[in-house]
Design brief:
By secondary structure, the protein is of the alpha/beta class. It contains seven helices and 15 strands. It has a single domain (about 10-265), classed as Glutaconate Coenzyme A-transferase, CATH 3.40.1080.10.
Length: about 270
Amino acid sequence: MLSEDRQPIEKKDTMPTETNYTSREMMAVAAAREIRDGDIVFCGTGISMLAAMAAKHISAPNSVIFFETGAIDSQLEEVPLAVGDSRVMFATSVNGSLADAFATMQNRFTGRQVVGIMGAAQIDIYGNLNSTVIGDYHHPTVRFSGSGGACDVASFVSRTIIFMQHAKRKFVPRLDYLTSPGWLDGPDGRKKAGLPEGGPACVITNLAAMGFDPDSKKMFLKGCFDGVSKDEVLDNMGFAVDVSQAAPIAPPSAEELAILREKCDPQRLILG
């Protein structure tokens, strides 16, 4: 079972791989596998940076990493601690501004190649996200920092990869607040709202990977991580999803782990 970031997972295959890895490493690798060569990757803080860095080293060497602070085509020799960290500007093609970053998402030439990596406090079956409040908006139990650029990313990029911890309080039937649009209320939701084509492509959790049905736009289970059952995935969600397409997800290979640990985050600033 993948449950705690720092708890090692013993693998059961006989491939030439490491036998222990953490759920955070599994999540970073799973997200990196979703990044295609040539993608323009909009990164936030933390594990999304690791996923983008790992993808560039492993399977997407021609991907371009950029940040909302205006650093475009960052080489990232060292993992930054935040999007405002000066290390995001190392060997960039452009050191611009917030306007440059958001123009990259919205212009008609580059926008179709942009994939955004996001996270949130709550997600629903259509991939809509809440990162604003828990509870009533005016009298919340918890108030978060809010959208930042998340709503713009979810609205304009070609697809999004979403990181979530797998828990019922996070996978909810109804959001307490809609911060960032997914597929809204279904197949025509984005079009009716005047949004361009795009939307969430997958959700990576500490237990599994989820996708979205191309017709209904509802979330479904793509696969479970090693040692995780379908029942465990469903038991930790506030709504039911289709599990008929679920297949085992390969654990990280020795190469993937070596790149993650030795090239991306040797100081374990994010891996922990």
